[in-house]
Amino acid sequence: MAKNNNTDDRPVLCDIKKGYALVTLNRPERLNAFNSDMHHELRNILTEVDNNDGIRAVLITGAGRGFCAGQDLRDIDPTVCQHDLSEPIIEFYNPLIMQLKNIKKPKIAAINGVVAGAGIGLALACDMAVSANNAKFAMAFGKIGLVPDSGLTWFLVRLVGVTKAKALMLSNAVLTAEEAKDYGFVWHLCEPEELMSYAESLTKSLAFRARLATQLTIDAFEKAQNNTLIEQLNIEAMFQREAGYSTDFKEGIVAFLEKRPPVFHK
Ligand code: T3D
Asked: How would you classify residue 239: left for phi > 0, otherwise alpha for psi between -120 and 50, otherwise beta?
């Protein structure tokens, strides 16, 4: 995979670090809003990241003062009255969200600034999000006469419950980072200048945890969202059996007994 650097004018940059990929949405003049080039580039990069066994975690952030402002509204011709918006949703947004969800590596969003519309869906499709404490979270869809997409109806109902989810969208809420943290959109807030060092060190630590156990933990929580308790208890037993057979578990026990930090390989 090509190593990019930040002087690149490609719409998405990918920097391969030790054990993880730093993916940067790179249309800062539009607050990293999505156009078709950015969709294609991001999908290609995510495919390569997924296929590269040396990459054990993925960190997604935005260049400039925004994380992602959702769809690029300047790409839409307002003189045309009718747009079949199911087309871009089905062609671009839905596959992107599913691709991200299906990558079997921890995905972390570092929200470096304003995030709006589908950009929030992108962040919530990650396993964890951290944010600059001056970021803003703009629901945005209602303001331009659209409905939430990119999985936001699904994510928000599970995150905050149906009543708050509806209220957030119907009021076109613009949340502060503090409010977004209280709602559970993000795990941790940082001073803006400290965000990337915090996010990279978190991603690195996830990359070097026991790989199988990390992924099984993510999968178990994903499955829990639709399972009954008994189904979930059975999943836990099945996943624990898998983890128990791993060399990482053996190393974890030996390291505990030897009073040293474990070194996971697999
Ligand atoms: O069409 C389909 O394919 C359907 C799919 C829809 C998915 C969606 O995501 S729909 C939601 C689309 N997004 C929005 O509605 C957000 C629009 N943007 C805003 O509401 C505000 O810009 C923000 C709240 C995000 C940030 O506000 P602020 O005051 O910090 O910045 P700004 O001055 O409004 O924006 C800075 C620049 O970015 C500005 O350009 P300029 O004037 O400096 O040349 C602005 O036009 C541009 N920008 C911001 N968001 C977008 C954008 N340009 C194109 N598309 C955007 N979404």
From this structure: alpha
